[in-house]
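FYI - complex with fe (ii) ion, inputs then prediction.
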Amino acid sequence: MAVFPSKEWFEEVREVYNSDRSLHSGGGGACDTTAGFSIGDRRYRIEFAGLECAEVRESNDAELAETDFIIEMPIESWKAMVRDVQENGKASSSQTLNSLDLGLEDGIAHSPVDDQYKQDLFYRYNQNFQDFFNASSRVETTLE
Amino acid sequence: MSEAVEIPEEHDLDTSWMENMGEWGANARPGKRGLTLADIQVGSYGDLPEVSDNMTGRPRGAAVRPEAYRVGAYSVHTLSEIWLDNAEYLYEEALQRQWSSATDIPWHTLEPLPDDVEEAECFLCTFFNEVEFVAGDVPARWIAKTTPDYLEARNVLVVQVMDEARHMDVFRKRALANGGGLMRMSGATSGFVGSIDLARDFTEMSTRLHISGEGAVLTMFRMGELFGQNEAEKTMYRLCAQDEARHVAFGVMHLRFLAAAEPERGEEINCYLDEAEGQLISGQQNPAGALAETSEALAVLLGGGMQHYDEGHKKLLVIRRRQLKEYMKRVMSAGFGERFENGRSPIPERYAASA
Ligand SMILES: [Fe+2]
Ligand SMILES: [Fe+2]
């Protein structure tokens, strides 16, 4: 059973996401971006290339500073989101990335260089990121 | 008498056309994303003229046919007028991210809503129907005015027209699918939204449409995830928001290109932004703005009914603030951020006041 958050967990989700096209919903086609996840004191870097998630790996602040945007939430919020996906098979409406972003005045996604063009990639590719986290419903998960 | 040309039994085949070709030996290779427009920028086929004298519709790189008719007096024929650095990429992305309003929206999740909520949603759908017509019609007008030499930028606009057709139809479908219907038109197309069509220059149009108009609409569509009452509505708004972010990206990248290529047009662009910001402030064109009827519909939906109007209105104000902030940062990203520091733009003051 994979533990969230961990490199293994992200790797398993990536495999599920890449192996089953039915998990890529309408409007979630080709996507090219790199993003960071800031989860408590852990950092992960994800890369989408074309129709697949090319890589997801453990990372650090310096590397995340080079990504298009970083999704940052308190670890409890991340866990609540992952738990919700586990329970419902996909994020329920209050736990989608976009809803979580709109729920906070400064949002959950920001460009490390404060470039709105790059931050807009979070909106432009939103469905891919949502599909990716929704794919985690198929990964047996323990919350750290 | 037959009009068929009589060919003598023995004649020489004229194959001189075979000797007229553009650069020969092109071997474009598909990459990870298939054979994209970026992959076929090979040899001289990737050369973009700074100024295009192509009036015959000749495909870029094809050999010239001197006697060809002048079919297009393309008014957009200078690269900086329309270009952006990632046109090929945006086009391919648009093609590969198309979705269907018929089958990708979980329509079965629609449920009867209280009258006030259904009316508010139908009012917004009516409003978006009007707006999406403009968003499709206006770029469409500019496609045929643009030289075929800039086909990549043209193609992005062609797919935008497709996107806007889908947006128009998805809101119409929603209005007609849940016991309601269309409401009285908002008249938005006679205000700022309609004035986008009065632009006499491509960049003027793009500034009004892609940066100011669609930037504001992008925030609204994202908000749909909050005010949508069911999975169908939330999905509809989320998918539209992705498309809208791509349209906004066109505007930002084009403005960036123009600012670098023709800095002398800076004052002109600032004037277009002045005009748009006047509208953002007055709320005429901005459906989430203070004066529009759409604001009331949004507050009803965000609150979950008339009885929670105040609560909905509070949420709307928070999002409105975010809209202003994102607008400013987008304009900065496009290279025109100075206006927010030198006192020219009224937005920073408005933003501060909304805290
Ligand atoms: Fe649209
Ligand atoms: Fe649009």
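The mean pLDDT of chain B is 92. Chain B has one domain: 80-354.
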